[in-house]
Amino acid sequence: MNHGRPTYKKSEQVDGADVMVYYWDARDGQAVNGWWFGTSVGGDQVWAFHTKSSSQTPPTAGWKVPYEGPVDPKMTLSSNRKRPAEQQLQQQRPSQPKNEVGAEAHIVVSGCAHGTVGPIVCGSYIRIGENHGKPTYKKTEQSNGSDVLIYYWNDPKSLSFCGWWIGPQVGGEQVWAFQPSRVIATCPTSGWKVPYDGPVDPAFLVSVDRKKSAEEHKQKRQEESKKHQEEQQAAQQIWAVLKKVKSAVASNLQELEKELEEITQKELEKCGPQKTKLKEESDKAVKQAKERIEQQKEAQAKAEPLLKELETVVKAAEAEAAALQKAVTDAAVDKANSKIGDCGAFINENGSVMRAGIVPSEASDDKLTLAKLLLRINECTKLVKKTQAQKKLDGALDKFAKYDSNKDGALDRKEIASYAKGEFSVSLPAETLEMIFQMLVEQDGKGVKKDAFHRLKVQVGIAREKVTDLERKKQREARDKELQELKTQLQAKVEEVGKGVSEVEAAVQVVETLSAELAKDSKTSTSTETLKKLDEVGEKSKAAKELMTSKKGRLAGLKEGLAEDVLGWLKGQTKPVHLKLVKLDKALAHHGGKNARIRGAIEKKAAAELATAARLSVSMLKYHQKVKSLSTEDLFEAMSTAKGKDRVLDKSGFISFFEKCEKEEKKEETEKKPLPSAEELESVFAKWATSSHFMHFERLVALLRCFMKVVKGTVITDGVSIKDSKPLRKLEVGEVIELLGQPVAEGDVDIMRVKGRAMKDDAEGFVTISGNQGTVFLQDGGNIFKVVKETILTESFELEADSKEATQKLQDTTRKLRPGELVEVQAWPKKEEKSALTRMQCKALSDGSVGWATVVGNQGTVFLEVK
């Protein structure tokens, strides 16, 4: 780096010299401010120059070659991306030490070989100032009555004079040595020319005077330490007075303020960098002390009347406590406690104000304070408690006198027994009385004296507790016996439920076995067989679940009415059984989920098989009708078992007809399809049947109707021949045609024609199915519509919603048809006069829902279109 910008060096030397790219700032003038190519940083020999001083890195183009010449357009700089390893290695090399003395103030010049200059310049130097931004050094002794200086000179007009000089004065005419470096910030250690216009003297060295530098540093540290100590001492004296001022009271504030002023005048100037802070703290402390004292005066003014009022309340409490000494009654005790309570209530209400007026340093014996009043209140409280205790003691002694029947001042064994029975309702056995005598009566004494009466009470209490413990023990033993009997009964019931778990395990095992067989056979069995097995497994699962629920219920029933201690024990006993049931429940749930997935897949498969069987059945009916040249009515007559106007088709007749009907023979083996089985025909009949047992003629008509949709515009004519017939109207793409006959070829032109009815307006005629050039006009289909815009499925043809509210209610309560759904036509579209909507009856193929849906809105919006 140089002058804050990167410096670059050519990897190989040229003619033994380095090639450097470096930045030079404006310290030597704007004319030399920019990027340079030269042998050294700041050297006199340069080859190229760029004036763009704002660039942080060397510019890529615009270099003047030579430096005072024109810009060379061919010279460019670019990044060398091929040598990252060398660059990294170069970055890792340690930097060479600088050829300068650094920031040290004491230096030594030695080794000058010149006979005249050597004695003049050699010796010790000390740093005395700066010139042109770099330090100046002066020899500690004069030479021949003249000073010897080392200084830096910067001459922008003449770069050859820029560098370090040794002479008697800065910038003088007389000089003895010269060092041309302009980069080094402090005195160079070598490279000096002696004399200034002579060669470099390799023996001439400038070095740091370590001894004098160390002495100077030591002296400087000592001076700084001494100065710091003096500053700290002065500051501590001021802080000591400041501390007093901060805790001053009204009586000594003026005196302390004067003391602070005197110490500040004396010591503040010695505080060095703490001077400003101490001055601020002094002013602040005096100000805060005055404010605090003023606040204390205000608080005292508020506290004094309250203290006097509290004193009145305390005097009333003291009077009641004194009166209590004369006559100790419950009423007198309550009255004294009430007065003491008044004192506490007053302090709770006004304590903060009274405490705010406390100034500890101003307290005196004759001054009324809160502390003194609190002490008096405590004395009253102690006196009342002492009086109560004395009354209680007197009461106990009255009992002593009551049971001392012989008035001898001692309670004998008989009197102690009477005392225990009368006061505590406990009968003391002889051994207990003997023990009490041994503990409380002196040898040869008559009995327990008054001073040991309270100890007698304790011993009687102990004896009573022993009796109570004995009762508790009996109750506990009875309870333990009762619990043991209850646990025995519960254990038997738990074991009974545990035995019943084996029944659940067996039932679950059956479900697991059937589920495994079902999973295996479902891949090869028919949908009907698989569904039957699924139903069987479902029944077994249901039975196992009910059995398991029963066992769980019995376990739960055992807990009813039990105490907490028994419940904890019962939980541990039932845990193994409960865990078994939980495990079995999870197994049932696992197989239930697995079987549900199988059922979903099988039901989809069954639906597809049923659809295939239904299509095949329709094809067989149409083929038989075609071969026998039967009308739909004749076909139904042939299938029906009941004749006449009540004719219907039952399941047996339906199945038997397919067994004997004409069947189409396929030429190719690949074209042959298996005929529907009896089971499949039963399912087809159930799908087509009008009721649960019969199928009517109208249903057969609907099944045998054939539809084709127009896929390319054509016309419907009144005859088979295109040439000899008249066109009735044009058929649009998307219209649906119901076929009324079998397709026929027209003459020799190989055009297929068919008689049909347009579902749009019931126009009947002949329509071309396909042309002789392969053009297709009609395709199979037309009775399946696709929902393209959401609409609703209603029960009736008419829409009776006349208001917005009714329309919203209708939309919220009816089946919605979503875009993409498929519906099958049940009644062809027609216009509803009241609403001008074109509507049709249809059945949703997704769930079998039947209803009326809008095909085209009254504004032309299309909701359903032919698929």
Automatic annotation (TrEMBL):
TM helices/strands, residue ranges: none
Location of the EF-hand domain: 391-426
Coiled-coil stretches noted in the UniProt entry, renumbered to this chain: 467-496
Signal peptide location: none
Domain of life: Eukaryota
UniProt biased composition (Low complexity): 86-97
Molecular function, one GO term: calcium ion binding
Segments of this protein annotated with the region Disordered: 51-101, 211-231
Protein name in UniProt: EF-hand domain-containing protein
